[in-house]
């Protein structure tokens, strides 16, 4: 009974295959399947071939090399040959505009502007040596939690055979970046939880342009240079390679200017944190200090803010800073403190600082940068009027006038005048009288500080 059934079902199957419509359908379906297989196979093998034949380098925006590579990409290149020049054309560009206040003669518009074109987002091809490099600049949909900026990458792809060109590209991009910053000082400031350059790099300030009292500048410069030459000594002894300096004194005495000039002299950048800034917390300070940019002097302005926070908040009615005293100490030499750094702290209120700060490892050298002295006033005069006041008669007159006004702390009769002026004020006077040294002498009275508490003592003494 079973056999006829089987034969009848087999018979049914044969009949089905004999049906031209069905057979055609099967044929088409298998063709389709074969094509799909072939496609998949091609994709897989292409992917494999791509992986074997090509090399990718991905540079993320967080990497220091990112701006260098972008700058390198925006270099003008002359592609030789018909094909090369067609392939390497860049169709998507993005613009970076820099404006300056100076205006070229005859130029129109509110400010002087220069435009830098960079390859925009998308794909481009550039030629480096003999290698074609595919460039893909992409903006991601995710963003940096700290700054809110979207993540970005640049991907460079070339043939495996040309993989060594990347070294050349990075070296060239680095040299280019170094050249762009030559003679400049980069100032970093904390933006969110990250360091970022504060505006364009500034022209280096010559050390000679900051005039401190006899020997002050020289002793700090010698100490920093000595420290820099002893890195191995510290490493060999397992001591953290750190040094701290505290510059204190009245406003406008040249503390910040000196640190900037020193950074230029050493070919360092400046990483600046204002401790009295709103939103600067202990955590943030400690974190930033562990992430210091390389080859930078750390500059902590207003070091007393942490102490004001602790002691003087009520009396000053000031509660802006949220950095605490222990937060500052820990950031400077706690377990999490960075292993290598040179820190400069500045303050106008040395009396507010705590002795715990002035301990080797935190602050190793303390220097007062005080009110203008005779020596400084004389040197500043030379810098401004040296070329017109050949005989130095003007300088003598000026210094005599300052003596008469008791601006160096003592009156002509030897009594104390309790009156001083700042180097910033002298600079202001000279700037006002740029090409008029007599004007500077006549206006010297303007150097008398206006809100000077002991002014009455001084003027009494003068009237005597
Ligand atoms: N000793 C100096 N030599 C040359 N320039 C000076 C000197 N002191 C001050 N100046 C000039 O005065 C201005 C203010 O100086 P700077 O900002 O360095 O003072 P500061 O000591 O940091 O003041 P503050 O304590 O208020 O921060 C600058 O333009 C600087 O060029
Ligand atoms: Mg300052």
UniProtKB/TrEMBL annotation:
Question: Where on the tree of life does the source sit, at the highest rank?
Answer: Eukaryota
Principal cellular location given in the protein's record:
mitochondrion
The GO terms this record gives for MF are: ATP binding; ATP hydrolysis activity
The UniProt record lists the AAA+ ATPase domain at 241-373
| Protein name in UniProt | Mitochondrial chaperone BCS1
Q: Where in the cell is it found?
A: Mitochondrion inner membrane
Catalytic reaction equation(s): ATP + H2O = ADP + phosphate + H(+)
Please name the source species: Metarhizium rileyi (strain RCEF 4871)
